[in-house]
Design a protein that fits this description.
alpha/beta; Glutaconate Coenzyme A-transferase; 8-stranded mixed sheet; 3-stranded mixed sheet; 13 strands; about 35% helix; globular; AcetylCoA_hyd_C; Acetyl-CoA hydrolase/transferase C-terminal domain-containing protein; AcetylCoA_hyd_C_sf; ActCoA_hydro
């Protein structure tokens, strides 16, 4: 999916959350690409996979030190970066270890989801019980970022896709638990879930859902609450 106005709005909000001196992880796709493009301050990179967006980051002088990743997914520019020593490949036991990630100060993980429940739990595996992928590194990076000193676990979603809300009463599958999601960002704003009660978390998420779905979500929150 191409980067459009919705993705740029989400990305601008996320870029504003990234602190000075951060180490960043992002997932592949249009939302991850938009977030990297929106950055204005140097970051270190520690990820499962790095994409062509790393090339643009380096060309803008915003890559602070060699990126660490388990995989490369991109074209010749990314290969040249790796050859030049700007990418250091490591095993998944190193890149995905939640304890190691939590020990990185200001580690910010930015990942997408198919659904986010009103408690903040994220589903990346498939809606309505129809699997489309495995959880991958999503739980690992979210857990590590949520435990990092000064870090942040961010889940980014388009509020609505094909008429279906990404914010739901309950996700069909819990890939990443509510305790490991700090912030959810849609094109309608930022839902900061840190230190919130269940009712406050639900209210924050409803506020960033698609307007057409908010009434139904409020009713669901009242019923389940």
């Amino acid at each position: 999916m191409a980067v459009g106005e919705r993705e740029r709005r989400i990305a601008a909000a996320v870029a504003g959350l990234v602190p000075d001196g951060a180490t960043l992880q992002w997932g592949p796709g249009a939302l991850g690409a938009a977030v990297v493009a929106a950055l204005t301050r140097p970051v270190r990179v520690h990820a499962g996979v790095v994409t062509d967006e790393l090339v643009g980051l380096a060309e803008r002088g915003l890559l602070a030190g060699p990126a660490v990743a388990a995989y490369l997914w991109g074209g010749p520019g990314l290969a040249r970066l790796a050859t030049a020593g700007a990418v250091r490949l490591a095993s998944v036991e190193h890149t995905h270890d939640p304890a190691r990630l939590a020990a990185i100060p200001r580690f910010v993980a930015v990942n997408t989801a198919l659904e986010v429940g009103l408690d903040g739990a994220a589903n990346v595996e498939g809606p309505r019980g129809r699997p489309v992928s495995g959880p991958g590194g999503h739980p690992d990076f979210c857990l590590g970022a949520s435990r990092s000193t000064g870090g942040l676990s961010v889940v980014v979603v388009r509020a609505e896709v094909a008429g279906r809300s990404a914010i739901v009463a309950r996700p069909a599958v819990v890939s990443t638990p509510r305790t490991d999601v700090d912030v959810v960002v849609t094109e309608h704003g930022v839902a900061d879930l840190r230190g919130r009660t269940d009712a406050e978390r639900a209210a924050s998420l409803i506020a960033v859902a698609g307007p057409a779905h908010r009434g139904g979500l409020r009713a669901a929150a009242t019923t389940t609450g």
